[in-house]
Amino acid sequence: MMLSAAAAAKEDEVVMRDVTHAGLVVSDRITNEVSNRLDLDDALNAARSSSHPYSTPPKEWPPLVEVVDSWELPTVLIERYNAGGGEGTALCGIFPEIRRAWASVDNSLFLWRFDKWDGQCPEYSAEEQAICAVGLANSKPGVFVEAIQHLLVLATPAELILVGVCCSGTPDGKDPYAELSLQPLPEYTVSSDGVTMTCITCTDKGRIFLAGRDGHMYELQYTSGSVWQKRCRKVCLTSGLGSTLSRWVVPNVFRFGAVDPVIEMVFDNGRHILYARTEAMKIQVFELGQNGGVLKKVAEEKNFISQKDSYVIGSGGRAGGSSKPTVVCISPVSSLESKWLQLVAVLSDGRRIYFTTGDVGINDRHQKPSCLKVVSVRPSPPSGVSGTLGYGSMPLAGHTQSDDFSLKVETAYYSAGTLILSDSSPPSASSLIIVNKDYTAQSSLGGNIGTFARSNRPLRESVSSLPVDGRMLFVADVLPLPDTALMLQSLYSEVEIFGLGRTGESMEKASAKLWAVGDLSLQHIMPRRRVVIFSTMGMMELVFNRPIDILRRLLESNSPRAALEDFFNRFGAGEAAAMCLMLAARIADYENFIGNIVADKAAEAYEDPRFVGMPQLEGSSGLSNTRTAVGGFSMGQVVQEAEPVFSGAHEGLCLCSARLLVPVWNFSFMVEKVGSNSSDDNGSGVIVCRLSVGAMEVLENKLRSLEKFFRSRKNQRRGLYARVAGLGDLTGSILYSGGQHLGVRDRNIMGNLYGGYSWNVETADGVGSSKRQRLPYSPAELAAMEVRATECLRQLLLRSSEALFLLQLLSQHHVAHLVQCFDSNVKSKLTNTTFYKLVCSEEGDMLATRLISALMEYYTGRDGRGTVDDISGKLREGCPSYFKESDYKFYLAVECLERAAVSSNIEERETLAREAFNFLSQVPESADLRTICRKFEDLRFYEAVVQLPLQKAQALDPGGDAINEQVDQSVRERALAQREQCYEIIAVALRNLKGDVLSRDIGSPTPQPARSLLDQSSRKKYICQIVQLAVQSSDRIFHEYLYRTMIDLGLENELLEFAGPDLVPFLQHAVSEPRNEVHAASPSTQSKYLNLLARYYVMKRQHLLAAHVLLRLAERRSIDGKDVPSLEERYQYLNNAVLQAKNVMNNDNLVSASKGVYDDGLLDLLEGKLAVVRFQIKIKEELECLASRLEARAGTSDSGQNEDSPERCEADMASSLREKVKELSLELKSITQLYNDYAVPFELWEVCLEMLYFANHSGDADSNVVKEIWARLIDQSLSRGGIADACSVLKRVGAVLYPGDGAMLPLDTLCLHLEKAALERCASGDECVGDEDVPRALLSACKGAAEPVLNTYDHLLSNGAILTSPVLRLRLLRSVLVVLREWAMSIYAQRFGTSAVGASLILGTLLPDKAAGVNQGVRDKITSAANRYMTEVRRLPLPQSQSEAVYRGFRELEESLISPYSFQHF
């Protein structure tokens, strides 16, 4: 029993290497399946040169189309029709959306089930007018009650009526269309304005379009309505204002001219195009737009029947004397059939004309229609088709049908590649001609995929004929049931070649379009196609037998072997074997159960080498009934080596596996759905499984059934398994161990099962041959190779079914809740990892483990969901390859942690946490530490939070490859990445403690007592605990990671307190390593490191090193222009550096000799740089203000954007200034750069003077430069604000430059310049300048020192060459009077003990208190000067009236100084 159990476990064990190899095969088959799908346009073009476009099945086969049921029309309908003598207005049709047929008699409408008679036939009666058109529309959401899902649209000559349709199912849900009721909507009735409607069509979004007998098209619009708005109205879409007035004013009897009404409308929901057919056989194209909108006519074609096409004139055309064919129906061509054909029109002679509405060859499903062009014409199928017609025996190309063979089509129906014609050409009775794809012609080419060009595969169709009584009136597909449609839409909505879910149609309609893909690809999942035909004699239901139905009927009827051989020959061994496999494994979609007899016969046929062949080398004989190799033998040429070709059974398994997995294989197994009610703050959606649980369950069951079939054949040693039973050890290796113990020759056999099947094998003597090599493999060895490949595929099926089981289990437990605690990287992987990767890759296995971890955490929660054993049992039974035995121990530890979390006893909680820690220490590499360490965090057991990640890092990299320079770089990087994933867990714990522990893991089941909000002291205690535990590790890489994390988290204080001796080398290396290194710090991070290094040096009282680091911070540059410190920050760094440098001078530990050297060096350098930064900040602020003023003026200007306009020039200047400001913000500039590149070009003369003063400029040349700059500064101020502004600038700048050496403040130049300007402005009347303005400005510039100012005036007055104008001399004398008075006021203030501020508020400076003797000497100087200047005034050649006031002022000043009591006079 133990051996049996071990063998069973070994049998079910999944070997990932085998699964990966099989995955490559399935991927290749899926790629071929997609690439070999032929567009209808290509197939039609290839069929132009085909002589046999139609065929009929062999007479030994069951019919392709059968009548499964028929019904008479309801008795009440027949009675109502007969009551009117058969002369009333009668219409009929089918509504497949609600499984109802309908018919109208005069003003009454009848509805009944078309798939079964339930005794119900509700009647709806309009007013007295007869019903002329009927339609069914989807109800717009939000207009009616939820029960009304559809609207019945009735048109009479007098009004248009909307009727609500309520459809409900049976209580058991088996029949969703059981009950139907009609709800009158009296407020949704509108007058037709005398227009009789001919037809109605509706879009999937509920829009209703009607065609009128007047030749116009209308839309019936309805809303929920309001007090001021009608609920329903009719809008004409195809006429202008004149035509509208004509319809309102001019009666129909007075209208003349031919009217061509629309008699048929169809709407393409996928492309949003409306097609209309008129009585005159015009086809019109209208565009509605992808998002709806106004209907717009884009094209109209009326001469397409007479276009010169070879098919129209030649084969399939009408006889020479017959009437012109007419169009009997039009139908849109779905995008599943063709990307380039949009419409097909069926003619009365059976031909089909295919149209395009755009440029052929442009594969754009959003391409708007722009025209209507005939692309291809398909000849009519042969008439008189019967079951005795041979396979492909009617050549049509180039043959003109006679009148006896021409069709007379009355009505037609085209949908999803199937054509149904009502032919009245037989003289005795009408018949139905059914045309659909001939899959035998296509599959027979599939033996060697890719060897037949896609463009050369012509469209071949099978023709069947059914005699019917009466005339066909209407045809409709029986849509799949909602459950089936939901499953199909979930599976195939993302598959490009199927394309469901793009049109917005109902699930039933969208899934019905899958029939266009073909039976071979979908007969395992799609039910048989059924159509309902409404004829004059009643209704009947037709069913289309798929190829697998034909095979089943052949097996059930005990058909002779020749019939099965013919079936295999027609479809090909691989395709026929796939169908046998689906029957044997019972995975085909059937209404009834596949019996054991059929399944056994199918299995026998699948394993019969006479049907499927044997695996052989390419080029060997015996492959005539299966697959043959491409190419032949050519004398003298070097040919390829022989390659093994597996049997049709293996090909069938590959096809079956690929078609089962194609809906999931290359698509992500989870998606992110974004809704308006998303709770995420960032607007992201929730993660859910892409497929529904029902769809995954169906697919899982089919995969398990297929895998179970092969497992049973292996256990029973059936088929190829029996043939390899005699290979001994080789067989065991094939079936179980995967070839680990094979010899060299056996490994060669197994080596290339999944590549190009080619070997480089030499002959026995070691000499390679230039001819084709045939490996000396026995048939048994080739069979063993195929069994090995089959086993790999079986394991892939098992692994895939387990993956689907796991996804179902996750969906049942709400994936969104399970993954809400995942980080963004894991969530991104979930939504970007394909099902193929989930099944076949290590990455997928890791994601599955992560999901199982979340599932276990959810299932073993403390709210009573279950225990570890409960959920572990499900996982071990459903997906043992994803849930391993080591996981069981891990979750035992999790259970201990859960018990600890709910325990209120501190000691018990500590014990349980310690026990869990011990469990996990045994398997650190298999634990999901991200989740488990969160639980330890909640318990405040930080020893495990630190030790477990470090143990896992050591287990993942035991050899230390992450720091081994001798190993390959890729190996080193991978090891480092694995280590850092472990280190990140400790970093997360620090982040959680740094912030609010409750802010993470919202919704975590941890109770409040264990996860209470920590106070600041507790956080700091635990952070210190983690840091202390972490620094005890000897892992250098971890130390560096820890330091980086703590710096990023702002834990610099803790780092400086507890870090080891390797902190300083780490910081020094981090700020010096190149940018291209893996862990090179970013500029912003380098700034943090430098700041921390400076703090460390300051803390250690190493001021000299701290000053150097701060200097580096201030001068830091950025290569990419990012993370640049502002000028203010640079200034602060330099200021701190200066303080540190000064602290060095005050440090007693520094030798006095080195103090002097250091003082002359670094301190001066730092102070100089600090001053230059001040200049740079000032220049930047000035340029910003100037740019803002220019931008404001340019923005408020109303002039145009002429390039030469002043406003444009100012805008360009402002842009240039902004660039300069940006340059100044990026890096520090030298004083030379600031002066030459910024201050001088932009005329910042004030800053220029300050920089020259700072640079200690002296000498004659420099004096001239200073004078010139002062002149420009004064002129600039005068132009900007006049004398007042100039004086203000002089006060501000002069006080900075005074006293200096006198060269920086040329008082004589400034005085003369300002006095002349003041005189000129007063004379011109531009400005009123007072006598005190200029002299008081000079006094302020000299910081209140009157004597230098007085000397300046005295120098100017004594130089007659400078002052030639008497008026100017008089003005200078007035200024001298002001200077003398201010000087006297300062003396007065000192004498009486008042402040200088009280004596002269204008000067604004404190004059020093002088001794009485000194004051007397100054008074004598002032008195003497006043006396001298009185004489100077009298000498002026001016009228006494102009100079009298000045003279009197000097005299009063003199008298006041002699007698201080008269001081109040001035």
Quick synopsis:
The protein contains 50 helices and 33 strands. The protein has about 1450 residues and is of the alpha+beta class.
User: What is the helix fraction of residues, given as a range?
Assistant: 40-55%
* Global mean pLDDT: 79
Number of strands: 33
Radius of gyration: 49 Å
Task: Give a short account of the largest sheet.
Answer: 5 strands, mixed
Q: How much of the sequence is in beta strands?
A: 5-15%
Q: What distance lies between the first and last C-alpha atoms, to the nearest angstrom? A: 130 Å
Spatial shape = elongated
Strand arrangement across the biggest beta sheet? 1-26-25-24-23
Helix/strand-derived class?
alpha+beta
Number of alpha- plus pi-helical segments: 50
Q: Which spans of ≥5 residues are poorly predicted at pLDDT below 50?
A: 1-9, 241-250, 307-321, 387-404, 444-455, 621-639, 676-681, 728-774, 996-1011, 1151-1157, 1395-1412, 1462-1466
